[in-house]
Amino acid sequence: MIKFTDVYKRYTDRHEALSGLSFQLAQGEMAFLTGHSGAGKSTLLKLIALIERASHGQVLVNEQNLTRLPPSKIPYYRRQIGLVFQDHNLLHDRTVFDNVALPLVIAGENNREIGRRVRAALDKVGLLNKERNLPIALSGGEQQRVGIARAVVNRPPILLADEPTGNLDPDLSRDIMHLFEQFNQVGVTVFIASHDLDLIQTMPYRQVILQKGRLAQQAER
Amino acid sequence: MKTVKQNVTNYLLRHVQVMLFSLGRLWRQPLASLMTVVVIGIALALPAGLYVLLKNIEQVSSQWDDAAQISLFLKQDKTDVQAQILVNKLTTWPEISAVNFQSASQSLEEFRQLSGLGNLLDTLPSNPLPAVVIVHANSDNLRADAMNRLLSLLDALPEVEQTQLDMEWLQRLRSINDIGQRGISILGLLLSLSVLLVIGNTIRLAILNQESEIRVIKLVGGTNTFIRRPFLYTGFWYGLLGGTFAWLTLLSTMSLINGPINQLARQYESQFTLAWLSGSMMLILLSTGMLLGVMGAWLAVGRHLSAIEPR
User: Fold this and answer.
1) pTM to 2 decimal places
2) ipTM score here?
3) What distance in Å separates residue A101's CA from the closest CA in chain B?
4) Which H or E element spans position A21?
5) Which of A103, B66, B73, B175 is geometrically suited to a Cys-Cys bond with A154, CB 3.0 to 4.6 A?
6) Interface contacts A/B by beta carbons within 8 Å
7) How near does any CA of chain B get to the CA of A156, in Å?
8) CB contact under 8 A, A106 and B216
9) What is the pLDDT tens value at each position of chain B, 311 positions in all?
10) Residue B11: its chain A contacts at CB < 8 A?
11) Burial (0-12, 13-18, 19+ Cβ within 10 Å), B275
């Protein structure tokens, strides 16, 4: 589903964020991306979401070669990927419902379908009763769950998360991870960057460990 | 499978939603929006107002077209009979529609009545006033060059001491009017440009304000078209509201000066009534506003949107 072949990412200041990285994730797999700060976790996710492009090497996602994807196709490519961020990236002047509905509105779905799917997603993350609230009125954990609902509402085959539990206490973090597990169980490929090692160790998934932009090891559990 | 009809309905519905959404955005910042609308409105009202003024001047001067006449002052030694022969001759000229004759004694009588110097005139040994033939030009010969040709023909007549064209000031007014029209065109162009820039700048600020929102929309797969749309509609609303404001400004200005104008017209025994903004003029004003709004927004969005990419 995701395949990196000898990927390099250099920034202009000669700093090499990724060096000769090769790894792959199978369809329907769930894995963690770990490593110290600055090891290149965010860069790797950005390459998958096409926020950045690789300097060298090949990135294949869902059978598409990202090195060759023209800029005009990027929006349509991103609709195949659900993105979850540490700081949620919600729109603060719109209700929970409107936030979750955004990917469907962009895709041009009709209102009935939008209402149905948004409520299904909010139900899944347990926030059905908060659809009229503004994000600011929600707790950090709830905001993160709104972010997750938005990421999955258009049923993407891939779900990427960048430190989704970074600001949450252990109990809430476990709830969030459990949510990701549930999406994985229905066939979504899930890839989560996290340094919450205590939590990750308790879960039976592969870890892709980065060290200074290189693959350190892949720990199988 | 969705049908084509459903897709079209969806698309139109989305546009209406975005349209109302951007109006709502303006509404939520009433003061800032109002200021922009007023600036646009004034910039549009100025050339439109001058245009209306010019139209009215044209209308006034067209009423005086039948006043296009040439006075021929005859030489003192010409008798009334000689003058009558001249009159008969002039009536046959194709350039001339009508000829009136006023004898020297009639001129004196008229002067006596209008000046109130009756007693003084009685002390004069002879009538100092000449007989006058008043020639009305044919309506085909009202243009300046034709009038001048006729004038020189009349001037060459042996009976005529002096000719006077009563149209000269009118022609000058027309020339001034022509200059005014060009001036207004240039002014209109410049002010349209300023409307474009005002809207462009307002939209630029709106884009910067919503930078993080634009990033989020791009992250979840929003195309540039999708992101551009609300800003274009914002420009549309600014333009439309600015045009409406301009129209209302002109309307109220005109109703304010309508009373005094009518009074003035009555004093001049004129049939003149103020020409108001016509319906088509209103449509032009509003659609110019809308067009400038959308164009200004388009320029701003084109320049600034591509610079905002997810990090």
Assistant:
1) 0.75
2) 0.90
3) 11
4) strand A16-25
5) A103
6) 54
7) 11
8) no
9) 557 887 888 888 888 988 998 999 889 889 999 999 999 999 999 988 888 888 888 777 766 655 567 888 888 887 888 888 888 888 888 878 788 888 888 888 888 777 777 777 777 777 878 888 888 877 666 666 777 788 888 888 888 888 877 766 777 777 888 888 898 889 989 999 999 999 999 999 989 988 888 999 999 999 999 999 999 999 999 999 999 999 999 999 988 888 888 888 888 777 777 777 778 888 999 999 999 999 999 999 988 888 888 77
10) 108
11) middle
Per-residue DSSP letters for A149-213?
Answer: HHHHTT--SEEEEESTTTTS-HHHHHHHHHHHHHHHHTT-EEEEE---HHHHHTS--EEEEEETT
Amino acid letter, A85? F
Q: How far is CA B65 from CA A119, B68, B166, B181, in A?
A: 76, 6, 11, 20
Chain A residue closest to B311 (CA)? A51
Q: Chain A contact for B219, CB < 8 A? A: yes
First to last CA, chain A: 20
Contact assignment for A108 to B13 by CB distance below 8 Å: no
